[in-house]
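debug: dumping io for the single-chain case to check the tokenizer round-trip. Nothing else runs in this session.
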Amino acid sequence: MTNETRYGVTRPSEDDIRKGDFSTPWDAPMVPPFPFRFRNVEVMTLYWRTDPEALAFLLPPPLRPTGDVACVHIYRMNDTDWLGPYSEANVMFGAELPGKASGAYSPYLVLSSDIGVAHGREVHGQPKKLGMPSIEMRGDLIVGRVERNGIDVLTATLPYKQKPVEAAALKPHFDFATNLNLKAVNHIDGRPAIRQLTSRRLAEVTVHEAWEGPCTVELRANAQLPVYRLPVVEPLRGFYWRADFTLVAGEIIHDYLESAP
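debug: decoded output
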């Protein structure tokens, strides 16, 4: 049987459905295929020293923390394939799977795009939820906010463009370009379908400008976005930077179901 075409779209065959990069609804798919490009992204990256026991508590085994520093990236995505403009916040800290992978684990992510939430959860296993991160220029101050449920869960400040730095300075504590996540998906009958640790690395990164300065990070409690579980012991440095990058496929670094006794 030939695939029928109507309204400018082609009805998929069973083989099409089995292929990678398939998404529903098939005549207006939600999840973009790899790769897709982010252009002119504005980022606030804020580091703070936190409780090492909190890091260890939030990490799924067998991952291990690699320090006592957490960070948040607050993104203003100005021009993204498929998704269009939106905002995102990614809370991270250094972690490793000894002998296999090292990078940054994401316990919390929040963003304003339903496509971004679906893609992050379905493909990467990122714990994404809807919310409203923002970056705002207020005179000589850059203000970053992460809002969910009407609560400013995180508020950060950074002086406006005081000290230019090279791109290498953006990662003083861990390599956040490699993102580690716990992917968990069930079958419809409740049986576990996927239980994996995944890793992906941003590609084709071009940093247009980067600025460093002292920062502040304030956390407020929210049971549905509990970033407060990574308390601010000491605010460290912050960065404002603009970049282009490409999101590409990653890899499975640990499969809990295959390694089960």
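debug: round-trip ok. The chain is about 10% helix and 55% strand.
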